[in-house]
Backbone:
């Protein structure tokens, strides 16, 4: 965590895991509060990691955040502040709270270069995996990457990293719910002024809680827009279908948000390839969660697809 490193250096603790996990570090970290706004996933990861290191953590969660994420955060000692508004309202409240004290640190998913760079590190891991699998990425074998998109920070950072490695041979597709296509709306507007899905009479209501964002990061759309090859939208029914299908076919336990890439490739892959004028290459589907999903939440997503439920502890037959 970048902030932990900064604090450790300021207090002469050094760097590395041993310094971060020492009793001295925990005593110092406890004097600081990390604050973030989230629909769930970012707040969950920041909360768990921050508390593990000894920081106080305050997570402002939008109305879309799932109850189980709030409960687990509270169990970890995180202060959870619930809001009736959407993601943007939760982030705005977190920003105001962080500004009240110099010992607070705000994790800004809308405007943080540091956070984008952190996300971009995943690109080098993917490059290593492709190399280990002897997958070439070049003019004759382009790489298409389908990434679920909320405010845009995660796919924006990953796309920037992949572009730095593979250049014009990689094409990143952001995948959004049809009711919450904030990046699509912002890019289609052709302006640097903020445009919301509400401006297009879209409800921002989806089972993909991690993607339920009405206003895109202007940092991503403004500075990284050229890295985005396209935006695909998927329905909640698509997400439920692919949650079920990937369990039955591959024993992958996904939450709805993380199934977005599968739906986008199945529904739009051929059209995307044709629009880019590219030959068939390698398609990568980025999944974004599911391993912590409680059984009841996962079964609910699968029931939405009209499935015959397989017990969570068993792999599907065949």
Residues:
């Amino acid at each position: 965590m970048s902030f932990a490193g900064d604090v450790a250096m300021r207090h002469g603790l050094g760097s590395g895991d041993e310094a971060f996990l020492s009793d001295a570090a925990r005593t110092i970290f406890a004097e600081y509060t990390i604050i973030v706004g989230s629909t769930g996933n970012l707040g969950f990861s920041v909360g768990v990691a921050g508390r593990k290191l000894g920081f106080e953590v305050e997570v402002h969660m939008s109305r879309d955040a799932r109850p189980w994420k709030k409960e687990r955060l509270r169990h970890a000692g995180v202060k959870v502040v619930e809001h009736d508004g959407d993601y943007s309202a939760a982030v705005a409240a977190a920003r105001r709270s962080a500004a009240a004290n110099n010992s607070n640190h705000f994790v800004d998913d809308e405007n943080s270069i540091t956070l984008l760079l952190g996300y971009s590190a995943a690109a080098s891991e993917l490059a290593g995996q492709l190399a280990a699998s002897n997958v070439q990425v070049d003019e004759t074998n382009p790489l298409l990457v389908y990434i679920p998109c909320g405010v845009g920070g995660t796919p924006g950072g990953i796309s920037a990293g992949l572009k730095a490695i593979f250049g014009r041979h990689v094409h990143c597709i952001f995948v959004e719910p049809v009711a919450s296509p904030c990046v699509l709306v912002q890019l289609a507007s052709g302006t640097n002024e903020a445009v919301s899905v509400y401006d297009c009479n879209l409800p921002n209501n989806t089972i993909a809680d991690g993607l339920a964002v009405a206003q895109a990061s202007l940092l991503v759309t403004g500075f990284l827009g050229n890295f985005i090859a396209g935006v695909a939208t998927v329905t909640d029914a698509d997400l439920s279908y692919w949650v079920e299908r990937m369990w039955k076919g591959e024993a992958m336990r996904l939450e709805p948000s993380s199934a977005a890439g599968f739906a986008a490739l199945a529904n739009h892959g051929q059209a995307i390839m044709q629009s880019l004028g590219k030959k068939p290459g390698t398609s990568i589907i980025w999944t974004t969660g599911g391993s912590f999903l409680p059984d009841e939440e996962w079964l609910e997503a699968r029931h939405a697809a009209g499935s015959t439920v397989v017990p969570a502890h068993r792999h599907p037959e065949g």
Summary: Residues 307-318 have pLDDT under 50 and may be disordered. The CA atoms of residues 64 and 212 lie 7 Å apart. The beta strands are 33-38, 56-61, 79-82, 104-107, 143-148, 170-177, 228-234, 282-285.
